[in-house]
Write a sequence for this structure.
C-alpha cells in the first residue's frame, strides 16, 4: 500500500531495477556493439515517444537481447541494422506503439470520426 | 536492395517468416540465414528480429528459451495454431494479389484482348 503510494511519486521500482539491469548488460558488450546499442537507445528515446515505463523497458530489453546475441554470434554491426539504421529503428519502434503518447490522439481521432459518421 | 524492393517486401515478410517456421522451429539468426540462402541477400538480422518480436506479441508463435554454447540463451520460435491460421490467410491474400497484378500487367501489355480473362 505504502509502496504503491511512493511509486506514484518516484515511478515504478520494478522499472528502475530493469533499467539498472539493462545498463549492466550493456557494460558487458564489446566496444563496437556498445556504441551501436547506445546510438539505437538514444534514437529510441527520442523517436519512440514512449510514455509507459514498462513498455519502454520491454523495448530496451528486446534490443539488448538482439545485440547480445549478435555479439555472441559475431554478426557484424552492419548485418544487424543494414544500410539504413533509421529504417531499422523505426521498424523496431513500431512494435511498441501501444506505449506511445500519440496513441491517445489516435483514439481521440477515431472517436471523433466515429461520432461524425454516426457509428458511435 | 532497392528502395522499391524493400517497400514491397515489408508487407510480405511476416508471411515469409511464418512460412519458414512451418518447416521447423528456428531462432532469429537461422531465419535470416535461410532467407539469405534463398536469394534475399540483403536481409538484415535486426529487421527479422523486430518482426519476430511483433509476431510474438500478436501470439502467432510460441517461444522457448534454449541455452547456447556461447552467449545468452536463444529464443527459438515455433508456429502455433493462430500462426497457422494467419499463414493460411496470408497465402490466400498473396494468391489474390499476385493473380490480380499479373492480370493487370497482361492487360496493359495486350490491350486488345490477348491475355485477358473473359
Amino acid at each position: 500500500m505504502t509502496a504503491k503510494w511512493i511509486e506514484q511519486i518516484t515511478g515504478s521500482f520494478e522499472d528502475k531495477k530493469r533499467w539498472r539491469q539493462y545498463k549492466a548488460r550493456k557494460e558487458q558488450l564489446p566496444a563496437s556493439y556498445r556504441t551501436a546499442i547506445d546510438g539505437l537507445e538514444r534514437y529510441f528515446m527520442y523517436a519512440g515517444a514512449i510514455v509507459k515505463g514498462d513498455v519502454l523497458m520491454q523495448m530496451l530489453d528486446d534490443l539488448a537481447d538482439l545485440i547480445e546475441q549478435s555479439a555472441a554470434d559475431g554478426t557484424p554491426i552492419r548485418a544487424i541494422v543494414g544500410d539504413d539504421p533509421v529504417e531499422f529503428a523505426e521498424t523496431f519502434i513500431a512494435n511498441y506503439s501501444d506505449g506511445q503518447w500519440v496513441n491517445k490522439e489516435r483514439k481521440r481521432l477515431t472517436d471523433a470520426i466515429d461520432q461524425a459518421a454516426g457509428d458511435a | 536492395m532497392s528502395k522499391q524492393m524493400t517497400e514491397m517486401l515489408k508487407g510480405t515478410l511476416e508471411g515469409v517468416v511464418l512460412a519458414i517456421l512451418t518447416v521447423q522451429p528456428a531462432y532469429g539468426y537461422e531465419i535470416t540465414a535461410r532467407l539469405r540462402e534463398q536469394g534475399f541477400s540483403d536481409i538484415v538480422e535486426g529487421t527479422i528480429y523486430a518482426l519476430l518480436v511483433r509476431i510474438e506479441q500478436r501470439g502467432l508463435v510460441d517461444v522457448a528459451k534454449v541455452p547456447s554454447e556461447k552467449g545468452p540463451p536463444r529464443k527459438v520460435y515455433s508456429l502455433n495454431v493462430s500462426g497457422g491460421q494467419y499463414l493460411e490467410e496470408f497465402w490466400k491474400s498473396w494468391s489474390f494479389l499476385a493473380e490480380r497484378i499479373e492480370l493487370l500487367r497482361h492487360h496493359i501489355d495486350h490491350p486488345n484482348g490477348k491475355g485477358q480473362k473473359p
